[in-house]
Structures are given as structure tokens and as C-alpha cells.
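User: Good morning. I'm curious how flavin-adenine dinucleotide would be positioned relative to this chain. Could you predict the structure with it bound?
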Amino acid sequence: MARKIVVIGGGVVGCSIAWHLAKRKLGEVTLIERDRLGSGTTWHSAGNLTWRPGGRFDAAVLYAFETIGRLTEETGQETGWLKTGRLFLAHGSAAIRRLEKYQEQASAAGVEGRMIEPKEAAGLHPLLEPGAITAAWFNPLSGRINPADFTAAYAKGARSHGARIMENCKVTGLSLSGGQVVAIETENGRIEADEVVVAAGLWSRGLLTPAGIHLAQWACEHFYVIADVAPRLARETVSFVAPEDLFYGREEVGGMLVGFFDENAKTIDAAALPEPFSFTLLPPDWDKIAPYFEKAAAIFPSLTAAPIRRFINGPESFTPDDVPLIGPAQGIAGLYICTALNSAGVTISAAAGHMVADFIAGTEPRFDPTLFAPDRFGDKAKDTDWLKRSVSDVVGRGYQQVNL
Ligand SMILES: Cc1cc2nc3c(=O)[nH]c(=O)nc-3n(C[C@H](O)[C@H](O)[C@H](O)COP(=O)(O)OP(=O)(O)OC[C@H]3O[C@@H](n4cnc5c(N)ncnc54)[C@H](O)[C@@H]3O)c2cc1C
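Assistant: Good morning! Here's the predicted structure, ligand included:
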């Protein structure tokens, strides 16, 4: 008899897991979402997919690019993927050295990329002030996707391989017996399971605490704005990241989306969010983004006078080391965790789904899972004060470290 596998959470990550599991025929797959697919954090993601060399996730990002093509072909569902290329902007000497290193690493790996002069960068992005940067590295692979459509494509693919997707069904707890997960409890009744994957985004910690599992995951407020810049930007305009200044951006419906990885990020208790928190945002915080917005306006002066069309403040969960939690839960057979994507969940979703499928299949992992072990923080993860301090620090610091 086929084993029963339940995935909790219908965000981009849960849907990718369901597709990977169903495609590999690993059992009867059921995905449970308490509201509608993508309604948690996924729907308001900026949807950037950025490749950079030598990082911890470069193979995962290359797999994401591969997956988008395969998934679109398989399902016929467009994802909004647009390969715009990405400019990494630098003005300080350490940042420039880092970009030069990127170029060396990219060449060694046989991946396209090149160092470019500020003038050429301004030729690629019409609103960039060349005098405000000293150098740039251009990576043509990167681009952006529509996270809701990407999620829908995973879900369509999962269904076509026999997975069942249940929306508007809240999971209320896990049923354990003899150190093994045996079922999940939902508002609509009990569902037997041989294997359960918790991919409930920032709500995962709360779901697992009653089972004695303390995830090193905490949410922070996370921001971007959409500015009505003039002149309007073409859809294909290159996207950009300025790691020293903790901002990134791209075109959005002719305007400019500018997002921030702020220092001393504001933590937020997932348990304190109103219920339901579906397709919901947090109030804007202009003071928090002001210093970073000013730095963005120094490089893109059109931002100074541009009306702000939208302020997106959504919760996203982070870990103390900026690496997701993916793998088997310690001490409970059949239970797997896949959460805390550190603001890269759309990008990492494909690799995350592959990793979970490898665990459940017991096959040789395509991606080294060691880095992602959910229990790597030990008992420290119980200490919520430590957790809040660590994630508040990792948002800005992690972004600089990953990018620089
Ligand atoms: C402002 C902002 C910008 C971002 N930009 C990018 C970007 O450019 N690129 C990128 O890669 N990433 C980006 N991210 C990060 C990305 O959006 C997230 O990492 C990703 O969406 C997380 O997906 P998820 O499936 O883990 O979580 P979610 O999308 O939150 O999905 C979890 C699901 O679980 C459901 N759920 C929760 N509890 C239960 C329960 N008890 N029973 C049943 N279902 C339950 C929820 O309803 C939800 O739908 C950004 C995030 C933010 C906030």
C-alpha cells in the first residue's frame, strides 16, 4: 500500500514539495492549506531570483532556473519568469574587490558575468547615476518571477501527478505514537499519515512546539516600496542589488520596486498576528526604511521625487545563521521540516522540494543537507530572547555577508 504523505502549508515551498513528492511517486500526497495557496508570505514576495557565485546556495539557484523551464513545459502554467540580468553595485573598495572575486569565480564555473564600468551600468539602467557608484558586476542569469503563478504551477504539476490539495483546512496539531508521527488533526477531522512535512512558513514553530520541537525560526517585518518613477521603466530593465547599502530593486509595472534588508530588523511574534492572516500586510514603517531609501535615491535620483504607490511590509521568518531549516525532525520518525527561508523562499523552493523528496525517498541527496539540519542550534532554539536578537541582527548582516 502506498505510504501517506501530508504536507502542511500551501505556500511556494509546500507546493514545490508536493510537486517533487508526487512526481517521484513517493506515496499518496496530500497538501493541506488553511486558507488559499500562497496566502501567507508568498503572495507579497518581490519574486527576485538572484544567482551569485561561491555562495551557499548557488547550486540551488541554478536548480531553480532549471525547474522553472521544466515546470512551465510540464504544466503549461506561465510563471511570469523574466530573465532581466542583475547589476551588483559597489562604491567601496571592499565591495569592489568582492565583485572582482565574483567574476573570477563565475568564469571558473563557466557561468556568464562581467565587471562593468559605471557608464555601461547606466546604459543598462536608465535611472542609474553613474557618478554614485565605482563599479558593477553584471550577472545575466538572474531575473524575477510572479510568486503566485510559480506556486500555482507547482500545485498544478502536483495535482497532475495525483497529489490532493485541500484548501481552507487548518491543521490544529500532530498525532504521535511511539516516537512516530501517525496523523495530523485538522479543523475538518483527522488525516492518517506515515510521513508529515511541516512547511507552514512562519507558523511552523508554533505548530511544532506542542510536539516538543523548538525551531530556531522567528519572523521579522520585511519591506519594499513601489515608486512611480519618471521616466517609466521598461519591463525588461535590468534589476539591481547594492549590498553595501542594503537595498535591491527592479522594475514593477513601469515603476521601481525598491526593497530593504534593514539593520536591527523589527521582530514579530507569529503567534501574535491576527487570524486569519491571509493576503494580509503589516502597517508601513517609513522611519525604518528612510536611511536605506536615501541611499537608494543617491544612486537612483529619480526616486527622490517619485510618489510611492505601495508600501509592502510583510512578515518573513529568519534563522540565526541565515540558512533555512530543512530535514528530518530529531526524535520523531516520519516528521520533516522545511521552513524559515530567510527571504529567499521563492528562489530556494525548488531545491527545498528536491531535498525533502530525497529525504523521504532515502536517495543520495542532490544538495548537501548538512548545512540545513533543523536541529543544528540545539537547546539554544528554546531561548526566544536569543532567537529574536539573532534574527534581528541577521537580516542586514546576512544580506551583506551573502552578497559581499
Ligand atoms: C517583503 C518580502 C520580499 C521578499 N522577496 C523575495 C524575493 O525577492 N525572492 C525570494 O526568493 N524570496 C523573497 N521573499 C521571501 C519569500 O516570500 C518567502 O521565503 C516564501 O514566500 C516563504 O514561503 P513558504 O511557503 O515557506 O511560506 P508561506 O508562503 O507563508 O506559506 C506557508 C503556508 O502555510 C499555511 N499555514 C500556516 N499554518 C497552517 C496550519 N496550521 N494549517 C494549514 N496551513 C497552514 C499558511 O496559510 C501559508 O499559506 C520575500 C519576503 C518578503 C516578506
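The domain at 88-141+219-318 is CATH 3.30.9.10 (D-Amino Acid Oxidase; Chain A, domain 2). The pocket of flavin-adenine dinucleotide is lined by residues 8-14, 32-35, 39-42, 44-48, 170-171, 199-201, 203, 207, 222, 224, 259, 312, 314, 316, 339, 341, 343-347 (CB under 6 Å).
Let me know if you'd like a different ligand tried.
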